[in-house]
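User: I'm putting together a small comparison set for a docking exercise, and I want a reference complex before I start. The sequence is below, and the ligand is phosphoenolpyruvate. Could you produce the 3D structure with the ligand included, as structure tokens?
Assistant: Of course. I'll restate your input first, then give the structure tokens for the complex.
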Amino acid sequence: MPAKIVAGNWKMNGLHGSLNELIAISIAAKNLNCTTVICPPATLVWAAAQTQDIISVGGQDCHDKAIGAYTGEISAGMLADSGAKYVIVGHSERRSEYGETNSLVKRKATIAQASDLTPIICVGETLDERKAGRAIEIVLRDLTASVPGVSDFIVAYEPIWAIGTGLIPSIHDITEIHDALRNLLTDRFNLAGEKISLLYGGSVKSSNATEIFACINVNGALVGGASLTARDFIPIMHSLSNS
Ligand code: PEP
């Protein structure tokens, strides 16, 4: 069975005071039947990893090179050195605002693995693509071109139109995409493909988490807004643990 994982993406939110939320989340995570990951801004990765050892810490992005003259960038090795165990790559905000392509995402995922980080590879369709009936085609195309050669990664299906909007696809549509992702991964990686965790992301909240986690190939969630406070995030963690 794939591991059950709930990952919080804090994006460009969080100062040192926010570590109180992380500590509350880690206390709640202690006896749960799932892995909890928080991806704070890079400025908090080290401190977050130092505060506790129950949940894991992740980066939100990394460069595709190990070292060099890339002002302002952070390498996968630096994240690992700061205590991160995971890194998000190919988030739709990176793809749309910074022009990240599938081949760049693949290189980032590959260097993350080489740096002992587990990449969380994001894919998802736009609303126009969904309306045109192309969601499965787009998601499978992007995942095929974004995954590294080794199966040690996590996939997050995040429909772009569901991120931060309060909208989510129907349970039927989530199931359909996740089943297609699972088929692609087992075709490509055989038995190892059955063990890759598939996360759903996009407006996950305590009110919809239980029905989303009931989908057979949904193994967890990537959560943005509702991961910023322990009050909102802990009920989602409980839903996954009980699923
Ligand atoms: C995200 O940005 O990855 C995300 C899922 O955000 P939200 O939960 O706020 O929709």
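Residues 171-189 form the longest helix (19 residues). The pocket of phosphoenolpyruvate is lined by residues 9, 158, 163-164, 201-204, 222-226 (CB under 6 Å).
User: Thanks, that's exactly what I needed.
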